[in-house]
Amino acid sequence: MKRFCTMLMAISLAMFVGAFAPAQASQDTPVAKQGAPNLSGLHDFDFLVGTWHGHHRKLKARLAGSHEWIEFDGTLDVRKLMDGFADVSDNVINLPDGVYRGVGLRSYDPVSGQWASWFLDGRYPADNLDPPMKGSFVNGVGTLYADDVLQGKPIKVRVIWSHITSTSARWEQAYSPDGGKTWETNWVSDFTRVH
């Protein structure tokens, strides 16, 4: 009986201490994923490092049957981070009604072999970042997707990087209101390397 009471006290003490033990938080160091890394796409965005002039055109209204495009210029400065596993871009966008800046961040996941891409709009610096667009390059064309919301309705977003040379590249954004069956391209940027 004494042994049973001692064991019961030990279990009760362990449960009491466990109730106050710290839980793992998102700030804790994550456990590295195992397996051979997929580095096949690690250098896909290397072409973008440098300074670029951008000529942009975007639809005045998105998913509204609009055919009116607004044209404007801008700049893009890109540099590598994390030994090439990420890059950051400083964007200057000269809209007709005013200039704004944005920060693009891309990172490579060696487990999935995909890139993730986020954009911080300088007009709304305290907003939460959207979930990243994710994708990869096939035959020199990069395609990334994300789920988003436009005017309270779910949409899919697609970004395509194409026409890539040492001195030029094209970025296109399209929205789909029907789960990816149809797409409306709403922003096209043609970039020319400055240096």
Describe this structure in words.
With 195 residues, the chain is mainly β. It is 9% helix and 50% strand. A hairpin with a 2-residue loop joins strand 7 and strand 8. The longest helix is centred in the first third of the chain and has 18 residues.
SSE topology sketch:
Blueprint (H helix, E strand, L loop, with lengths): L1 H18 L30 E10 L9 E13 L4 E10 L2 E12 L4 E8 L11 E6 L2 E10 L2 E10 L5 E9 L7 E10 L2
Antiparallel strand pairs: 1-2, 1-10, 2-3, 3-4, 4-5, 5-6, 6-7, 7-8, 8-9, 9-10
* Largest sheet, strands/sense/barrel: 10 strands, antiparallel, barrel
What percent of residues are in strands? Answer: over 45%
Principal-axis shape equals globular
Number of helices: 1
Helix content: under 10%
Task: Indicate the mean pLDDT.
Answer: 88
Rg from Cα: 24 Å
Total count of strands? 10
SSE string, helices as H and strands as E: HEEEEEEEEEE
Termini distance?
83 Å
Main structural class: mainly beta
Characterize the quaternary organization of these chains: single chain
Uncertain parts:
1-23
Strand order of the largest sheet: 1-2-3-4-5-6-7-8-9-10
Task: Provide a brief overview of the structure.
By secondary structure, the protein is mainly beta.
For the structure shown, list the relevant keywords:
195 residues; mainly beta; 10-stranded antiparallel barrel; 50% strand; disordered N terminus
